[in-house]
Amino acid sequence: MPADRATVAALIDHTLLKPEATPDQVDALIAEAAALGVFSVCVSPSMLPVRTPDGLAVATVCGFPSGAHQPAVKAAEAADSVARGADEVDMVINLAHAVTGDFEAIRAEIAAVRAACPAPVLLKVIIESAALTDEQIVGCCRAAEAAGADFVKTSTGFHPAGGASAHAVALMAETVGDRLGVKASGGIRTAQDAVAMIAAGATRLGLSASAAVLAGLPE
Fold first, then answer.
1. Rounded to an integer, what distance in angstroms lies between the CA atom of residue 57 and that of residue 181?
2. Residue 180: other Cβ atoms inside 10 A
3. CATH code of the domain containing 43
4. Catalytic-role residue among 13, 74, 90, 150
5. What class of enzyme is it (predicted)?
6. Whether the predicted model's global pTM rises above the 0.90 cut
């Protein structure tokens, strides 16, 4: 895929998930997103609903950032966010299930959220790849596909283990093939980072530094 500015912009979820973010900052995020030509904005559920120009999707998060919530709570949060105008929901899995190899529990919680926000809402599943082994990453991706998710996503950006890596993105892309999208998120701050993630197989990018990333790319 060409790494020109417009092509990369079309893959970006322009993100503001800081707990202290204010409504005015969200308004500024939306204005910047429109000016940059990105795919969507991603904001906390408490900020919904938001007003966006035509063509700019609205994403939010669910079970964020720890994932240590009951499936019914995640499902209710997702349903409420969709009712408030979210087009896409990025849910965090329960990492304890991944660490213990209980991928059926992961599948079940993703399925509960999927049922709460059926298509055309897009469901992305955050697996916190930096905290997992390769085997655990593969198991999580398979569970997400079995549960009907649309994307697998590397990271919240809040875990101390770190964010996206090209290795994790490549492994996730290899596991889901062209059946699901792969979102790279967490620690992507330069054009070089973004290009590396796309080359590894990312089909969406979660960025807070979108302007700086895009400024480093050719027209």
1. 16
2. 22
3. 3.20.20.70
4. 90
5. lyase
6. yes
